[in-house]
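Crash report, auto-generated. Payload:
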Amino acid sequence: MEECDHLLLIQAEFDGELDAAEAARAVNHRASCAACRAAYAEFEAARKLIHADAPYHRAPESLRRAIIKGLSAKAPERPRGPAWWREGLSFGLGVALAASIAVLVIAPGQQNMIDEVVAGHVRALQPGHLEDVVSTDQHTVKPWFDGRLDFAPPVKDLAAKNFPLLGGRLDYLDGRPVAALAYGRDKHIIDLFIWPGSGGSAPSTATRNGYNVVHWSAGGMTFWAVSDLEAGQLRDFVQLWQAEN
Amino acid sequence: MSELHATSVNRGFEAVILPHLDAAYNLARWLTRNSADADDVVQEAMLRAATYFSGFRGTNPRAWLLQIVRNVAYASKNLMRGAALVPLPGDGEGTAQMPELADPGDDPETALMRRDDARRVTRLLASLPAELRETMVLREIEELSYKEIAQITEAPIGTVMSRLSRGRKLLAGAVAAEQG
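Recovered output after restart:
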């Protein structure tokens, strides 16, 4: 039997999605349309079958216990950072090579943030974690953050500069949800974390466990770029990102 | 984050999100079609939910959690995409999209159900393509509204409606066909 144009109206009535006036219209239509009566009978048959036979899968008790245990393990504060000055020394060699932009060492007070952003980046590299919205289009990625964050992060595509935008996701850093943009460079991934922060500060850098980190703030936002990309290339990325409108 | 704050966030999470653990598991179980994968998906989803919880401003924690579950399930493998098809005579639309009957990747549980006529609805529902299956499960088992399903599956309401009608038609038609 041919489907009637009113099929979805009939179904909405079946699902209780219509107000009284619309529902009455649907019922009237059904009375005079054999195709819609047949469809309605199918809706009823499908629902009856599911309600009679399809199981509701409740979470096993073992899973519930594991999750509750995981939650309580998550509660304590992250232990205070390692000996940051040692990291600072080893990283000093890298700084000497920096020529393209004025490079500062990330301040000692920020050492915990370096740990956090590197951990966030490493976590994101696990399969399937990199982006929640996969798009190379900044006009797709930017609106995706609306309603998911209480701020609007700037989203830029640098494909023309060989740093294509791969997508975006939410992450959680510095005690708050933040925007994370993923960019690619050859086989390397760059994560750019963005959240509101005061002041303007020039890029400063650090390395941690083989990852390079660049931090700056501008326009009321704080930025952290992290990647296993070579330090000079990551600074190029930052410079291009800052220059791009 | 101070320890005190972390603890109060956890309490909020336990009160607001944990009551929807069964719903999370049900969706994960229907999407992955086996309990081991469902366990993994729910664990990961709860971890993510706990991480993002302090940023949750919505009024519908169940839909919010189910959206995360779905994202994790889809990201975890290509497990639900190429769902096995129960061919429906005369239904060109369905057969074009789902060319296979047997799914060699089925777990033993599914294989058992395959032999069990009494569980045919479960089997038929599990054989629907993921987009139709999740929509059917959310509407008919979880009894959510179109709007909630649209949010969870990140699809327009019109798409939810047409998926529902296709899913229902496939299910009712398949059962009728089996009964001869």
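Post-recovery validation: Chain B touches chain A through 59 residues (CB under 8 Å).
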